[in-house]
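Memo subject: From amino acid sequence to discrete backbone structure tokens
Keywords: amino acid chain, backbone geometry, structure tokens, three-dimensional fold.
Body of memo: The sequence and its backbone structure tokens, given next.
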Amino acid sequence: MMLMSPLIERNAVVPISRTDKFYTTVNNQRRIDVKVYQGENLRPDNNIQLGFLKVKVPPAKAGEKNIMVRFTYDINGALEVEAWSEDTGKKERCVFSNQANLSDEELEERFKKLEDIKLHPRDRIENRTLLARAERIWSESLGDKRDYISAVIQQFEALITDQRNQNMAEGQQEFSDLLDELEQTMFDID
């Protein structure tokens, strides 16, 4: 039985980009078919199929090879689907549902402008910079303060691991403010 694996859920704020990993299911599988559906039903047959992509993978035991699939949805209702094998790096791409009747060139330009949101939050420079700053503060601290900073770092890492978090900017600001306070106390002389 085939089931849906939603990447972009109903009422998501657009533009949006989400990525997920999918694995082979049988031994010596040579490709993974990505069927793209629109709908809310768990069973694909009860949704609208928009199209599909086929991604080649090297043959191996079931579950050993995978592909990454990224859905990027813009405000005009255009859905870009990219899928690639992590082993080969070969990428397949397709754009679906051009409700705004944009030309191919206009669609390409719009998706180029959305490149920044395709980057996973944990890979964004501002988040990596905050983590590096926190790790520096941790290394300059001792005892209970280190334990506290470790816990705060783990909370922030959990925040930036979840692509679906709607309060990313708020979480980044809170973490940055906390780091400011920690740095300030490092230089306070009693």
In short: The mean pLDDT is 86. Residues 35 and 64 are 21 Å apart (CA to CA). The chain has two domains: 16-118, 122-186.
